[in-house]
Each structure stands twice: as structure tokens, then as C-alpha cells.
Design brief:
The protein has 14 helices and 13 strands. It has 367 residues and is of the alpha/beta class. It has two domains: 181 residues, Glycogen Phosphorylase B (Rossmann fold), CATH 3.40.50; 178 residues, 3-Layer(aba) Sandwich (Rossmann fold). The strands form two sheets. A seven-stranded parallel sheet has the order 3-2-1-4-5-6-7, with helices on both faces. It is globular and about 65 Å long. The mean pLDDT is 96.
């Protein structure tokens, strides 16, 4: 039975969340699709909140208001009660206000599901913490995660008999490609490597700079462009100076999704060297624009989207030598690069929002 209304909760509705809502609206043309965001601005990312035709959006607070836990809980519970005759999909299950909302919805008879991309190997785990998470997840009828490690983690946390669908991590391939239209295509030799990441410790950019210095020392001539902001910007610029590579690196700061599309379109490859990375949505963005990816084995996108010698390469997060070697490999072999680009384009549909809409349908329309 098709639900009459589907409600999705995120901390903030950015471009990729809006992509997912639009896809669900297309998949369920007779249903009302509603997005609820707690804040009108993301605390971590500076992306612009999105409103598009096809779904309704409810914003509970302005970011500047800095609502406390009790205020957030009251607002969410009021919204949940008002929309209790809906099928709900909630992100951030670990937050007290979201747990309270899930519990209220379950008691009110609503069907409620959780969404997320955490993996067991993201960080050291303790038995008590994992047991507590399993209790917090009890109100949910099922979950949406991304294969493979995210879905396995949901099963570990108690979803062995409850349905687990996916993928969760998706965005609009068509939007990324449309945003890149008209971008000048540089010659192969002029394409830079690109990193799109917050400038924080877990993104492992200090290692990436070390790898880039090794690549340059081995005769590499390409530039490196870094898109993102964060507290380590000054430290990374200082490291680049110390390594003697500062003149070859461009720090763009935070850029919106349109400029990300254009930057990736003229790149040689995306680099994602994270120590901890639940998934890595920028991998989908790169593949949408037919660009290969060099990413660490810690990234959740690795086994789902990246195949060695097909559309990219994976490396240990603590091996700048391995990353430098892969950079040199695709730098010098245009035939290999073209093959990897074709593989990346072929892989892109796996990360498209249509797959997320089907995951929603699997749970919202049980057999």
C-alpha cells in the first residue's frame, strides 16, 4: 500500500537532501513528500539550504537562534504529533531529541525508519556504547544504509530481523552534470588533482600533502586544488611552504555545489585520503562527472563504488607512498586515465538518487 505522506528529517536540508526528496516525490507521485530540517544552516557545512518544487519543507529553527536540547525536542515532538499519520524516515538516531521523536511516532502507530551511513570501523567501539545504541534503535521498523559496511553495522546493532535497505548516500547525477555544462575542457596534461573536503584532522590532508610532495619529487608536474574550509587551513598552508610545494597548491576555501561540479569536471582525479569517512559523497560527484577517484580504504564508498583498475584506486590511509604512486600512475598514462573515466561514468548510477527512492519504496511499500 502506497503511503499518503512521507516525512524525512535531517539536521539541515542541503543540495543532496533536496535531491533525495525530489527523487522520492517522483517515485511516489500521489504521495505528499515533506522534508523537516532542524536548522536552516548546517553547523559544519556552509552549503545553502534548498527548496524545490515537488516537496514541502519545514524549518524548525534559524541557525542563529542556537536552540538548546529542550527547545529542539519540543519542536520536533510537536511536528511529529502533527504529522503522525505519515511514514517517517529519521536521520541522527543517536541524538536525544530524535530518539524521543522516534519513540513518540512508534507509540502513535506511525511507521518509522532510520537512515545513516556509520560503519563499525569508523572508530574504536566499546561494548556498552554499542549496546546503548541498540536500545536507542528499538523504535524503528527498519533502516536505510549504504552497502556494505553501513548496512552490516545496522544489522550488528539489532536489525537482523528488521529490514535494512539501501543505498542511503546518493545525489542527483543529472544535477551534477547540468551544473558542469559549459566548463572548458583542459588538455590532459593541464588537469590538476582535486581534493574536496573539510580541513579537519580526520580528512588526513597532511598525509595528502606529503604524498603530493613525493609525487612532485618523482617528476610530477600537475597542480593540486583543495576545496574546503576548516580549522587546519593555516597549518596546511604552512606545511605546504615547508615541503616546498605551496606554489603548486590552490586553496579555494568552501565552494558551493555548482563550483564543485565545474572544478571536478576539469580535474584529472579526485583524492579522498580520510582516516575516518562514513561514506564520502564527493565520490559520487566525481563519478557523475566521469572522474576517477583515489581514496583511502577507510572510506565507506570504497567497496560500493570504487573498483581498482576500473574507476580508481584505494590506498592505506597512512601510506603517502601508495597515494603518490597512484598519482604518478594516472598522471603518465592517458590511455589508463581515459579507461578509468569511462569506468567512473558507468559506476555513477549506483550513487544516483533514484536508487535511494527505491530503497524508500522497499520499506514504505512492504510486500
Amino acid at each position: 500500500m502506497t503511503p499518503k505522506r512521507l516525512v524525512f528529517l535531517w539536521n539541515n536540508i542541503g543540495p543532496m537532501h533536496a535531491d533525495r526528496l525530489e527523487a522520492v516525490a517522483r517515485r511516489f507521485p500521489e504521495a505528499q513528500v515533506q522534508g523537516v530540517e532542524i536548522l536552516d544552516k548546517a553547523p559544519v557545512y556552509d552549503w545553502q539550504t534548498e527548496e524545490r518544487p515537488g516537496f514541502e519543507k519545514t524549518t524548525l529553527f534559524a541557525f542563529a537562534a542556537r536552540p538548546g536540547l529542550m527547545a529542539r525536542t519540543r519542536a520536533l515532538l510537536r511536528t511529529a504529533w502533527r504529522l503522525r499519520r505519515s511514514t517517517w524516515f529519521l536521520c541522527h538516531y543517536e541524538r536525544p531529541e530524535v530518539f524521543a521523536t522516534a519513540l513518540l511516532l512508534r507509540l502513535a502507530g506511525a511507521r518509522v525508519f532510520t537512515m545513516g551511513c556509520s560503519k563499525f570501523d569508523d572508530k574504536p567501539r566499546r561494548a556498552f556504547g554499542e549496546w546503548l545504541k541498540s536500545l536507542i534503535l528499538r523504535p524503528y521498523h527498519g533502516a536505510i544504509g549504504t552497502p556494505v559496511r553501513s548496512q552490516d553495522y545496522f544489522r550488528f546493532l539489532g536489525f537482523r530481523k528488521r529490514p535494512v535497505s539501501g543505498p542511503y548516500n546518493t545525489l542527483s547525477i543529472a544535477r551534477m552534470r547540468a551544473q558542469a555544462e559549459g566548463t572548458p575542457e583542459p588538455a590532459f596534461a593541464e588537469r590538476p588533482f582535486v581534493i574536496v573536503a573539510r580541513l579537519v584532522g580526520k580528512k588526513n590532508l597532511a598525509m595528502a600533502l606529503g604524498a603530493y610532495a613525493l609525487y612532485r619529487a618523482q617528476g610530477g608536474t600537475r597542480g593540486l586544488e583543495i576545496c574546503g574550509n576548516g580549522p587546519l587551513e593555516d597549518a596546511l598552508k604552512a606545511q605546504a611552504q615547508t615541503l616546498g610545494i605551496a606554489e603548486k597548491i590552490t586553496f579555494h576555501g568552501f565552494i558551493q555545489t555548482v563550483e564543485i561540479s565545474r572544478t571536478l569536471a576539469r580535474s584529472l582525479a579526485l583524492i579522498l585520503p580520510s582516516i575516518e569517512e562514513q561514506f564520502g559523497n564527493v565520490v559520487i560527484e566525481a563519478q557523475a562527472l566521469a572522474r576517477p577517484v583515489l581514496l583511502s580504504e577507510a572510506c565507506g564508498a570504497r567497496e560500493y563504488l570504487v573498483q581498482p583498475w576500473v574507476n580508481g584506486f584505494a590506498f592505506p590511509h597512512d601510506s603517502p607512498q601508495a597515494l603518490a604512486g597512484f598519482m604518478a600512475l594516472i598522471d603518465r598514462d592517458e590511455t589508463l586515465w581515459q579507461s578509468l573515466c569511462e569506468g567512473a561514468s558507468a559506476s555513477a548510477p549506483r550513487g544516483d538518487v533514484a536508487a535511494f527512492a527505491e530503497a524508500v519504496a522497499t520499506l514504505a511499500e512492504p510486500a
